[in-house]
Amino acid sequence: MLRTLIQSLRDGVVTTRYPDAPAEVPERFRGAPEPEVGRPFGALPTASVCPTGAITAGEGAAYTIDLGRCIFCGRCADEPSDGAIRIGREFELSARRREDLLVRIGRDADGRVTELAPEPADTAALGERVAERIHRTLGRSLHLRHLDAGSCNACDWELVALLAPHYDVRRLGIDFVASPRHADGVIVTGSVTRNLEPAVRRTFEAVPEPRVVIAVGACGCSGGIAPASYASAGGVDQILPVDVYVPGCPPRPEAILFGILLAVGRIEAKRRPAPAR
Ligand code: SF4
To answer: How far apart, in Å, do the first and last CA atoms of the chain sit?
Structure first.
């Protein structure tokens, strides 16, 4: 006990300051594929290199990378090796609309790659006094019910990390609860298996309104490597009305936290009275 106490004093504060301060991601972290602006358009890889069908390559500006399907494997950056795709280090990729996860790549008049990607989110505004914002919206902390709808558990491990001392999401007034009746929303990992589909629906219906749905990981966003089939319904939005998509395979804990912050804004929007007609 004494040894533990001494070690704690030696370690000091281990909790990250994210989102109030930028996150320090490890050197070897691999983010999402990004276009190398200015490279010849012909240096883009063919769609067939992608194991999840995230790349749609057509003529002109029809080249698209769907981050909701992408597992961040990096194959498109490796082939061809001097190609027009690189693996970035961005992790704040969550989006409220599925289409915002589409990275569109264009071709300029000189036949070079141009970036048509969505604008980066305003993380500073999101991180600002998030706990106060949650309390103002809900009058208490934000409670989420985690649902594993058929994941490989990678996303689940990242979710669990949010509760550990390094991320400690409770400092922001966010917590995971066991009962959907005590929750403000559900956070779902995995593509929804046919077996778990009824349970996912029933759990969502047990959450009082207004409720949010956060889909985590490539499988939750689109089905990922387990798209719709006899065994899987595919992405969470095939079953529930998803409010926030968190891409990645798995997404970093900070990436999930970023998605939860987006969801908080969504709750505010739902609570706002409808405009008078
Ligand atoms: S990094 Fe994403 S888009 Fe590129 S090949 Fe892998 S899954 Fe496909």
So the answer is: 65
pLDDT at position 240 is 95
The architecture of the domain spanning 123-271 is 3-Layer(aba) Sandwich (3.40)
Residue 169 structure tokens: 């999401």
At residue 119, the pLDDT reads 57
- Using a 6 Å CB cutoff, which residues line ligand 1? 33, 49-52, 54-55, 65, 70-76
* Delimiting residues of CATH 3.40.50.12280 domain(s) in the chain: 123-271
Residue 245 has pLDDT above 60, yes or no: yes
Per-residue pLDDT tens digits for 103-126: 988 888 888 888 775 655 555 555
Q: Are the CB atoms for 200 and 193 separated by under 8 Å?
A: no
For the chain, the residue count is: 277
Query: What does the alpha-carbon distance between residue 259 and residue 81 come to, in Å, rounded to a whole number?
Result: 33
Atom of ligand 1 at shortest range from CA of 71: 7
Report the predicted TM-score, pTM, of the whole model to 2 decimal places. Answer: 0.87
How far apart (Å, rounded) are the C-alpha atoms in residues 275 and 226? Answer: 41
| CATH architecture, domain defined by 33-115 | 2-Layer Sandwich (3.30)
- Highest mean pLDDT among 7-21, 52-66, 226-240 belongs to 226-240
How many angstroms separate the alpha carbon of residue 112 from the centre of ligand 1?
21
Determine the average pLDDT of the residues in 167-179: 90
Q: Within 13 Å, how many C-alpha atoms sit on residue 30's CB side?
A: 14
Residue labelled with tokens 């219906």:
205
